[in-house]
Amino acid sequence: MNNTVRSQKYRKLSITSLITGILSLAIFSVPQLIMWSSKYLNTDTERLIFNFGIGIVIGIILPVIAIVCGSIDLRCIWKGLHRSKLFKGFDITGIILGSIVFLIAASFMLGEIIVPH
What we know:
By secondary structure, this protein is mainly α. It is built from four helices and no strands.
């Protein structure tokens, strides 16, 4: 694999890390989803399933994708597999945003399990 193709591949990892980190933070901080669920879903069970599904997708899956993609790309930069250090900030930002959203979502879910309403 030549250097141009290799750098393109790692640039995609950096951008994926940044975008999924920003997306998870932006969607996670939208309270309209919870308001929509309480307005249009009839039973408590439907609301619980909807909110738990949204929490898993937005609070767990997207941040994990951001953390994994950023970590893979940072490891490749540190090993010297590619020279482009331009996107190192994207990786670090994606990892930080993903970690913040993951920790907030995990604490909400753990709090709901320990102290149900």
